[in-house]
Amino acid sequence: MNPMLLLQAKERIDIFGQEHPKVFPFFKMLKNKALHVGAVYEMKVTSADGQEYVSNIRLTENDVQTIGMIMEAISQENPQ
Predict the structure, then answer these.
(1) Per-position pLDDT tens, the chain of length 80
(2) Contacts of 13 (CB under 8 A, 6+ apart)
(3) What gap in Å lies between CA 71 and CA 59, rounded to an integer?
(4) What does pTM read for this prediction?
(5) In the beta sheet, which residues pair with residue 41?
(6) Are 64 and 35 in contact (CB under 8 A)?
(7) Structural Rg of the chain based on CA atoms
(8) CA 30, CA 71: separation in Å to the nearest integer?
């Protein structure tokens, strides 16, 4: 993995957290209350022209471990 790419990603995550201050506390709440096998995570995106896109997944043990690691890494950098 390219270390420079990781540094750039960290910078972008920091900017994202500053521009959207409610996101990381929401992820922290999910990690504490809704990160378990069988939970259904749904994402909905509405484009600028009003088109909606929706997808969801039912979490497996692998998903829980992966999402937990990502959330932990983000929360260490953005302790809100």
Answers:
(1) 788 898 898 899 889 999 999 988 888 888 889 999 999 999 999 999 999 999 999 999 999 999 988 888 877 766 65
(2) 74, 77, 78
(3) 15
(4) 0.70
(5) 57
(6) yes
(7) 14
(8) 9
